[in-house]
Specification:
Layout: H1 2-94, H2 98-113, E1 118-121, H3 127-139, E2 147-149, E3 160-164, E4 169-173, H4 174-203
Parallel strand pairs: 1-2
Antiparallel strand pairs: 1-3, 3-4
Helix pairs in contact: 1-4, 2-3
Length: 204
């Protein structure tokens, strides 16, 4: 009887110990699975965030390149528009009737010469337009302050003149006058072009 009690006691103890070991193993396995899941989730999150950062960086880089290219093209188009404006202005000046053209050039000549004598350099196409003007100015000047046309050094293109005295020269060619005006007005014109393009875009 005592042996059977001992046997039961041992078996009971063994069952209790086995149950405890089973629970401990299940807990350890569950902890391991949970830890592995957390590690996996953390790694997935890390990779996801890294992928997002890479995508964001690539997108921002491409966007910067696109914006930069767009700004460059916009700047180039502004330059072309401004160039067209001043090319058209030059064409209109050259196409002025002779009387109007001479009136404009008279004011420029009087300001450039300040009553002094000197040579006037012109393009050959402008000689016939300037001769009556120079004769008129010379008629009103004293003998020592006459103007002459310097045909030895013609200008490369029509429009305006260069006055050359013994002490200085003044470039009043239409090309130079418009370049100076373009330098002065370019920022304002560029702003006007941008605003006009914005209004047209908003209304389209």
């Amino acid at each position: 009887m005592a042996f059977e009690q001992i046997t039961h006691a041992v078996l009971d103890t063994a069952r209790v110990e086995a149950e405890r070991a089973r629970k401990a193993a299940e807990k350890a396995a569950a902890d391991k699975v949970r830890a592995a899941r957390q590690t996996s989730e953390a790694e997935c999150e890390r990779r996801y965030q890294a992928a997002i950062r890479t995508i964001d960086e690539d997108f921002n880089r491409e966007l910067t390149q696109i914006v930069g290219a767009g700004n460059k093209e916009l700047l180039a188009e502004k330059g072309r528009c401004i160039r067209r404006v001043f090319d058209l202005a030059r064409q209109r000046i050259l196409a002025l009737p002779d009387d109007t053209y001479r009136a404009v050039m008279r004011r420029l000549l009087e300001r450039a010469t300040e009553g002094k004598s000197g040579r006037i350099r012109l393009h050959p196409d402008d000689v016939s337009r300037f001769k009556p003007l120079i004769e008129e100015l010379n008629a009103a000047r004293a003998g020592g302050s006459r103007l002459t046309i310097d045909e030895s050094q013609p200008l490369p293109e029509p429009g305006g003149f260069i006055f050359v005295s013994d002490a200085y020269e003044v470039d009043q060619s239409v090309r130079t006058l418009l370049q100076d005006l373009e330098y002065e007005l370019a920022p304002h014109l560029a702003r006007e072009i941008t605003e006009q393009a914005g209004r047209n875009g908003a209304g389209s």
